[in-house]
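Narrative of activities, Objective 1.

The group set out to show that a structural description can be obtained from nothing but a protein's sequence at a throughput compatible with the screening campaign. Below is one input-output pair from the validation batch, recorded exactly as produced.
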Amino acid sequence: MRRLIIFGVLLIILITGGALTTLFLSGEFSSNIPVLTTTVDPDASVAIVQNWKAEQLFLFIGFVIFNLVGIALTLAIVFWLLDRSQQNTALRETGKAPNAGTTLAVKNADQIPAQTGSSRT
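Output recorded for this entry:
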């Protein structure tokens, strides 16, 4: 619970900082708090976004998200296959039935002795 509260406070600080930065750069608080403008050249400014900069950022974020989804799917398939293999091995060696909700295709499954009761005899 403590970590959640710390995470929430940090998130609020980040959101507040972003909102204040946006308001400062747009000129809303220029009369109250002075903001030093270092350059008016759009190519050098961090406050002015040109079309090609926005396009490059959009493409970069899309590329990163696409690759993260691909990595997640690959890992999910690998872990699923490893779990399936582990359950197959456990079924062959001990005769224990796998966890509920899993399906296995085991060769010669009819030759594995059925388990009766809580212990194997």
